[in-house]
From TrEMBL:
Native species: Arthrobacter ginkgonis
Name of protein: Probable membrane transporter protein
Location(s) in or outside the cell: Cell membrane
Family named by the database record: Belongs to the 4-toluene sulfonate uptake permease (TSUP) (TC 2.A.102) family.
Record's bilayer topology term: Multi-pass membrane protein
Length: 239
């Protein structure tokens, strides 16, 4: 990885970690399109591994607000979803996976802006967890289904519950991706280099939460992610 690529990925992960540390999701939405653009072979393993670090930090910070029952039902769906997502990574080409990233990001953003609010029942939580497992393991963008199902809850509860869910789910995904041979030496090297940046983004989110409205920060993050997905799609179309 050259210096320019590292600088771009570091800046991206700092913003992604700050966003997720503030609103409970969004790191994959911001980071995956950029990584797919410059270092597609690092997807999805790199973002999933960095998510383990970030979600652990947020879950510890906001643990008093955790919805254990809701997270449990969502994780029940995450297991089969993660298995299916791992199969997709092995079965499809890098180009196809990049398209999946771009489309998944845009669909997730569109759903968030439409404001659909399904009822939170055991079935709907499990279905959302399964969809998140597929998207998160295959593309590292698994936040949208959970953001939709948990929208409207107090910010601290959203952050805590989503982080606990994503921590367990991400650990499962890392294990499956490792078994599939997708956690390469290049991925491990990038993970070690970028982990301090994720830590910095997390601590920055604590400072930003004092001054910035979460809804405004969420809007900025979604727009940034949309821009990254559009750029990626244009590059794929132009070949």
């Amino acid at each position: 990885m050259d210096a320019g690529t590292f600088a771009l990925l570091a800046a991206t992960m700092f913003v992604a970690a700050g966003l997720q540390g503030s609103i409970g999701f969004g790191a994959g939405l911001v980071a995956a399109p950029v990584i797919a653009l410059v270092e597609p072979d690092l997807l999805p393993a790199l973002v999933v591994m960095l998510a383990c670090v970030l979600t652990l930090l947020v879950a510890i910070r906001d643990r008093a607000h955790l919805d254990v029952r809701g997270a449990g039902w969502a994780l029940a769906g995450r297991v089969p979803g993660s298995v299916l997502g791992t199969w997709l990574v092995v079965a499809v080409s890098t180009t196809a996976l990049s398209w999946i990233v771009a489309v998944a990001v845009l669909v997730g953003i569109g759903s968030a802006f439409l404001g659909w609010r399904p009822a939170r029942t055991p079935v709907s939580l499990a279905v959302a967890g399964a969809l998140s497992g597929v998207m998160g393991t295959a593309t590292s963008v698994g936040g949208a289904p959970m953001a939709i199902i948990w929208q409207g809850l107090p910010p601290a509860r959203i952050r805590a519950t989503m982080s606990a869910f994503f921590l367990v789910g991400s650990l499962m995904s890392v294990g499956l991706l490792t078994l599939a041979g997708l956690v390469t030496s290049a991925v491990v090297e990038a993970f070690l280099l970028l982990s301090p940046v994720v830590l910095a983004g997390f601590f920055a989110s604590r400072w930003l939460n004092r001054f910035l409205d979460a809804d405004r920060l969420r809007l900025v993050g979604l727009l940034a992610a949309a821009g990254g997905a559009v750029v990626l799609a244009v590059r794929l179309i132009l070949g």
